[in-house]
Specification:
Chain lengths: 419, 166
């Protein structure tokens, strides 16, 4: 029996010839990640349990990106814990003000994660790196503490659902629409404990940014990981930034999948997830009239340069609708600089958008754009749970960049065709 | 270990933002987190619940973020255990790693109403609804997870393994 790409990576890191779904394994870790919310607990656990030195100072990565630039004294104290620990442990990959970006955009961009890796992160959207052909999954702070000490993590080998996308994508429809549509189809626990493997002719046409968007939201279907087999697009992206050698794994033709789902996306519409679940998805033509107060373009889902270019194409020459706030968050300093050099920031400022420093900020209701009771936002982020972006009485509608930018100009949810 | 307490019913897809909203994540102090446990699902929960009470939820409990603050808040609030039809995977993993007892049992979810008194035997997974006198049994816990619990959580397990290696 053949193995899936996920099974092969896990087998290799567990020192085993083969693994099968359901098996519990101990795997070595290539990268273990923490942020300003999750790492303080991990560092505390590490110390309480006799930790002196992390197992490998180049494999523990700390990125204070959630409540930074420090939003209040408490947050500043959390970041201080990371800063001191990074210094004490002489960590190779610690990012702070000016170099810090949103972790799941930053690590691939800096070549810290490469294909074939096993990555754990004390952040649920760690699954983003599956776009590179790595096994990457979110864990808690205790798992991070354990990895800091041992360089290992335990896993139950997941079954894999294979998603095959066929046809040709219509204009403006992107990776975000594909993943929202897929989550709408299978539900928020449709892939619970499982791997989502994305394949098909449509995938090979997608940019890396679109693939990151898709892998990023695998967790919103309950999945353990989302994964793409690397192709020429992946290799071109990785070769120019890799910090290590890498391995490319493929799923065997006779690999066992729990399920294979095929979609013809040739007539797929732009997608919008209504409150308060990412699976509550409608096509743009079924949205109706939904007036909005705020638009957020950014996050680990959609804050990459390709996303900002799409936003600029729509916003160019336009003005954000009266009484609507548009917040644009370049995901990393590199993205920010690129957007500056390409003139995108000028377009944003001229449209009356506000540009935020790289941060998770409003996505999780931290800062930089919190909603008041009764307010509605369209966001290119990944969650629309109750209270996610602010007051529990506020609402978040998830969409891709095209819908978000068009909605900012319209003052209500709509797509580029409505402009 | 046995738990006895009143049941607090919650629905499907109770996410980690409902369990502990991110606006309180600028600290990891368990007592601070406990004050806001389940706040966006039931704002009155923390003041009304008593130590030992039990959360009974439908499917996909704990979906969303990886924040260990969620099981920490529940444990620090004094909740003895959580029974659900199913748990989201990171929450499931975190609960075992940090020592919050959780039980998967659809029958119990169907057979427990808000306010019922429940007894749970953590070792056997047997549950008794004292109010209705109905009995349930949780899905068995995988052997590796039992080992984690027996060691006292993941970090203690790590120490044990290190001692064995040395």
């Amino acid at each position: 029996m053949g193995m899936t790409v996920t099974e092969k990576i896990l087998a290799r890191h567990a020192g085993l010839e083969t693994v099968a779904p359901g098996q519990i394994i101990n795997a070595t870790i290539d990268v273990a990640l923490g942020n300003d919310i999750t790492a303080p607990i991990a560092i505390d656990e590490f110390r309480k349990n006799g930790g002196k030195r992390v197992f490998d100072r180049s494999k523990i990565v700390l990125v204070p990106d959630h409540f930074t630039p420090n939003k209040d004294i408490q947050s500043a104290r959390q970041c201080q814990i990371l800063r001191k620990f990074a210094k004490e442990q002489n960590l190779v990959y610690y990012f702070d003000q000016g170099t810090v970006g949103i972790e799941h955009a930053l690590l691939p961009e800096q070549g810290i994660v490469v294909p074939g890796d096993v990555v754990i992160g004390a952040d649920s959207h760690t699954c983003t790196y599956g776009a590179l052909g790595a096994f990457a999954t979110g864990v808690g702070s205790t798992d991070l503490a354990y990895a800091m000490m041992t360089g290992e993590a335990w896993f139950r080998v997941p079954e894999t659902i294979r998603f095959v996308y066929k046809g040709t994508l219509p204009p403006w429809v992107d990776g975000k629409d594909l993943i929202l549509f897929t989550i709408g189809d299978i539900g928020v626990e449709g892939a619970r404990y499982k791997a989502m493997e994305f394949a098909g002719e449509v995938i090979s046409e997608l940019s890396m940014a679109a693939r990151f968007s898709m892998a990023n939201m695998a967790i919103e279907a309950g999945a353990k990981n989302g994964i793409f087999v690397p192709d020429d697009t992946t290799l071109a992206y990785v070769e120019e930034r890799k910090t290590r050698d890498f391995m490319v794994y493929h799923s065997d033709p006779d690999a066992a999948f729990a399920e294979i789902r095929e979609y013809d996306v040739s007539s797929l519409e732009l997608q919008v997830a209504f409150p308060s679940l990412p699976s509550n998805v409608r096509g743009i033509s079924d949205v109706g009239t939904v007036p909005i107060d705020q638009v957020v373009i950014g996050s680990c889902t959609n804050g990459r340069i390709e996303d900002l270019r799409t936003a600029a194409r729509i916003l160019k020459g336009g003005t954000v609708a009266p009484h609507v706030r548009l917040i644009i968050i370049p995901a990393t300093p590199t993205v920010y600089k690129q957007a500056l050099e390409e003139g995108l920031l000028t377009i944003f400022i001229e449209s009356n958008a506000v540009i935020s420093p790289p941060t998770c900020g409003p996505c999780l209701g931290g800062h930089m754009g919190i909603l008041a009771p009764g307010e509605r936002a369209v966001a290119t982020t990944n969650r629309n749970f109750v209270g996610r972006m602010g007051d529990p009485q506020s609402e978040v509608y998830l969409a891709g960049v095209a819908v978000a930018a068009a909605s900012a100009l319209l003052g209500k949810i709509g797509g580029p065709k409505d402009l | 270990m046995k738990f006895k307490g009143r049941a607090w019913r919650f629905g499907t897809n109770i996410d980690t933002d409902a369990i502990i909203p991110a606006r309180y994540l600028n600290t990891s102090d368990p007592d601070e987190l406990a004050k806001h446990c389940m706040e966006d699902a039931d704002p009155g929960f923390v003041t009304a619940m008593k130590p030992g009470d039990i959360i009974v939820a439908d499917s996909n409990f704990g979906c969303g973020s990886s924040r260990e603050h969620a099981p920490i808040a529940i444990k620090a609030a004094g909740v003895s255990c959580v029974i659900a039809r199913s748990f989201a995977r990171i929450f499931y993993r975190n609960a075992f790693n940090m020592g919050l007892p959780i039980f998967e049992c659809g029958d119990a979810v169907d057979g427990i109403s808000e306010g019922d008194t429940i007894e749970v035997d953590a070792a056997t997974g047997e549950m008794l609804n004292v109010t209705s006198q109905r009995k349930f049994r949780a899905h068995p816990i995988p052997p590796f997870m039992q080992e984690l619990i027996a060691s006292g959580g993941l970090m203690k397990y790590a120490q044990m393994r290190r001692l064995q290696r040395d």
